[in-house]
Amino acid sequence: MTTNETTTAAVQKPVGEPRYVNRCDYKKEFMMEMERVARPRAIGVVLVIVAAIDLLELILSVSKKQWTMVYCMVLCLGLILFIRFWVPKIHVKRMIGQMKTMYGTVSKVETLFYDDVVFCHNLNSDAKSQMDYDSIIRIIRTKNLYFINYKPMLYVLVDRSAFSGSEEEQEFEQFLREKAPQAKFKVRK
């Protein structure tokens, strides 16, 4: 735990009015987006390269009638496809199942953006956390969300549909850029 970020039940809501308030339900669609964003693209590139090499080897093995090698290559290709397409779905299904077991529903988090801190309140568990803007590492904008990454693999999700319009969203994005200039800003589809 760093001095810039606290997570305890004793965390109190900051005094004053927040600049932005966002409420995000951790539904399946958002969790799948989180999976795509959280996994480094390098893993996907490596899987594609390995699959291409495996496919070439498979073609060569078929032409040489090396049926044991063909069998191994088909299994390897199947494993690559499983890792790429089904593992994220299985992971999301497990996370949503855990939330429903613990809370009876998916997590609902309210995030308040003050001038000096970001305050998160899990409405299901009543857990509260607070972080300084200088602890933000990355901000990633996707189709539906902003992912505010403040520690490796820890994100605050901001639902883009909660903004009243594109102007408010642009103001929010500018606010984040000003408050966290050290953060890398990325746009992913």
Could you characterize the architecture of this molecule?
This protein has 189 residues and is of the alpha+beta class. Helices cover 45% and strands 25% of the residues. A 5-stranded antiparallel beta sheet has the order 1-5-4-3-2, with no helix packed on it. Strand 4 (117-122) and strand 5 (128-132) form a beta hairpin.
SSE arrangement:
Layout: E1 5-7, E2 20-25, H1 28-38, H2 41-63, H3 67-103, E3 108-113, E4 117-122, E5 128-132, E6 138-141, E7 145-151, E8 154-159, H4 166-179, E9 184-187
Parallel strand pairs: 6-9
Antiparallel strand pairs: 1-5, 2-3, 3-4, 4-5, 6-7, 7-8
Oligomeric description of these chains? single chain
How many helices in DSSP terms?
A: 4
Helix content: 40-55%
Q: Kindly, what is the distance between the CA atoms of the first and last residues, rounded to a whole number of angstroms?
A: 32 Å
The helix/strand series, from N terminus to C terminus, equals EEHHHEEEEEEHE
- The structural class is alpha+beta
Q: How big is the Rg?
A: 21 Å
User: Strand order within the widest sheet?
Assistant: 1-5-4-3-2
Strand content: 15-25%
Taking pLDDT < 50 over at least 5 consecutive residues as the criterion, the unreliable ranges are: 1-8
Kindly state the mean pLDDT as a whole number?
84
For the secondary structure, the number of strands is 9
- What form results from the Cα inertia axes? elongated
Largest sheet: 5 strands, antiparallel
